[in-house]
Amino acid sequence: IYPSSQARSGSSCQAGKPDRNLWNNHGPVSLRPATSMAHFDVERGDIRFRVKVPHGSSDFTCRLAEGVLRRNITAARVRLLIQLGADPNATVQLTDLNEGWELEFSLIELCIDGWAREMASSAYLYGIRWEGPADGGASVVREMIAGGGLIAGSVGETALYRAVCNVNRSVVDLLIGIGVRLSGNEAEEEGISESLLEDMLEYHRDLHFANHRPASGQDVLYMIRTLTRRWPHLLAHERTRIDCLRAVLNHPVLEADAQEAILTHLHTNPRPLPIDDREFGRLLARAARGMHHTSIDWLHSTDPAAFRASINTRVLGATPLSQAAGERMRDDLPDDLAQEWEAERGRCIRRMIQLGACVEAAGVAPLKAKPTEQRQQWERRALQAYSAELSQLSTGEAVMAAVNAALRPMRTWAANLSAALPDMTTEQLTAAFPHQSSPSPMSPSPSLPPPSGTRPLNRDVSAFTWRIGSFFVDPSALEGAIETQTTLGKRINAAMRRYVVEASSLSVSCNQEITGTSKADHKRTRDGQQLVRPSLQCFALGGVRGARLGLREVVRCAIAEEAAKYGLAVDGMSCVPLFDWRQLGYVAGGGAVFVLMGME
């Protein structure tokens, strides 16, 4: 009946005296009743427990308790022992032989597989895993209930509480199926109903830190959905939902998809949760200390405006970036978990920088100021992430992706019209475009030739189609591509907006004037000279006759200045010429007026 031969020893209730007559190769031979006070020891790693059953309990009850604690009993043997007189409602006393504390548990509670801590003691009581049944002890609990085990009142609530904190799906489904209640007076006095979900989340996090590898994030999500569907009052109070959100945001080891789904469920059920700016700042600070980039992304998507207002706001004297960089690593973490946590911290810091976290607002000292020794470690983490982000930004991929997205509707319309218009007659063109007046009297747009019957147009209309396409530019595509909270982000965003405006202006008549041409394009002038044209140079320094710059030069200068400010090594930035941002502007009015962009 026992799952392994190793479990057949040590079955006697007298500590250290296994009953060899109890077993042969085919199972139990005899079961003798006993009425003496009995105890036995259980070892769990470096922790030793002494287990005592009540005075006068039968030997069958003692063996049932021993099998449950040693996790070497099967559901069939539980049924047999109960039939022979074992008491499934017995309460046993556990004594920690190392620390000396004592606690009492019902046998049904001790059947529940998983890892849970007892709040009644400063010590942690960790359960051991069932090796035989794969249902987390549910089959054993089912047999004990069928044999007369009571799951009513405080016993049922405590058993359910233990199963929930252990994220034991099988036992929770079993207890809910038989109608265990969660709203008795004792539960309310102990605060179980209000803190159940928060306790489960905190236990799950702590067990990861203790390297016990508890249930997966999907199991936690299943548990939350199951419990809130059965007992909606668990999320009835806004304060309770806020506390649960904090527990999830401070959970750095949940899988990303599970964490996002849990946060969304808590935020939207039973109705959308209103969060004011002050509370949002606290949640963001908690997410920063939890150091999980999924939490940061979820908060940003939930309320972008509140996120922008809170990302550089100090909570308890520190911004979210400084809290993530300065969060102290737990001393008891195993090496593999510590490395995993440190890697996630780096991703979290970099994500906050991408979304507008300012390293200077976080208290990171510029190169000219020498940081104190206490700050050097967390400043190094912040600057490493900042250097990686600047290196990625210096490639120009994010900037050009946003600009091309804004110009894509214009290019699409111009290309489609350029392909279709030459095959249309002037009568068709006049009917399609009855109004041909220029949007600006300073630079009239190209006009179509006068009607000449039903002959196809058969001429180059690219300048005309480009002008039509310019009305479909989408500046909203620039929003969110680059953060707007820091000086660097503000400079890049202002440059991108100006570039898009200039690219769709009347002074640009084709796409080549935006992208430029190179020798690889094999373009030549009328006299046969190689035609090389730079990309759109829409910025000027100091005046109408000042040096002209393109978007790439402006962005690289902004990045190079930030790298030099903190002494960061960014590829290709050491040779970028810097300029005075107060002199940056653009030329308007047909080349006669210089307009400053107002940057500092």
Name the features.
600 residues, alpha+beta, four-stranded antiparallel β-sheet, 23 helices, 46% helix, disordered N terminus
Can you describe this structure?
With 600 residues, the chain is an alpha+beta fold. Among the domains are: 120 residues, no CATH class; 200 residues, no CATH class. It has 23 helices and 10 strands. The strands form 3 sheets. A 4-stranded antiparallel β-sheet has the order 3-4-5-6. Strands 8-7-9-10 form a 4-stranded antiparallel β-sheet. A hairpin with a 4-residue loop joins β9 and β10. α5 packs antiparallel against α6. The protein is elongated. The protein starts with 22 loop residues before the first strand and ends with a strand.
Helix/strand layout:
Blueprint lengths: L22 E2 L2 E2 L10 E6 L2 E6 L6 H12 L4 H9 L7 E6 L5 E5 H5 L26 H9 L6 H13 L3 H9 L7 H6 L1 H18 L7 H14 L7 H12 L6 H13 L8 H14 L2 H10 L1 H7 L9 H7 L8 H20 L18 H22 L2 H24 L5 H7 L29 H8 L17 H17 L8 H4 L23 E3 L6 E2 L1 H16 L17 E5 L4 E4 L4
Antiparallel strand pairs: 1-2, 3-4, 4-5, 5-6, 7-8, 7-9, 9-10
Helix pairs in contact: 2-4, 5-6, 5-8, 8-10, 9-11, 10-11, 10-12, 11-13, 12-13, 12-14, 12-15, 13-14, 13-16, 15-16, 15-17, 16-17, 17-23, 18-20, 18-21, 21-23
Short description:
The protein has 23 helices and ten strands. With 600 residues, it is of the alpha+beta class. Among the domains are: 275-394, no CATH class; 397-596, no CATH class.
- Poorly predicted regions are 1-37, 116-127, 183-191, 438-445
- Quote the average pLDDT: 78
> What is the helix content?
40-55%
Report on the biggest sheet. 4 strands, antiparallel
**Strand content range:** 5-15%
Indicate the overall shape. elongated
Distance between the termini: 80 Å
Radius of gyration in whole Å, from Cα?
Answer: 36 Å
**Spatial order of the strands forming the largest sheet:** 3-4-5-6
Number of strands: 10
Q: In DSSP terms, counting alpha (H) and pi (I) runs of 4 or more, how many helices? A: 23
Structural class, judged by helices and strands? alpha+beta
Region (Disordered): 433-458
InterPro entries: Ankyrin_rpt-contain_sf
Biased composition (Pro residues): 441-453
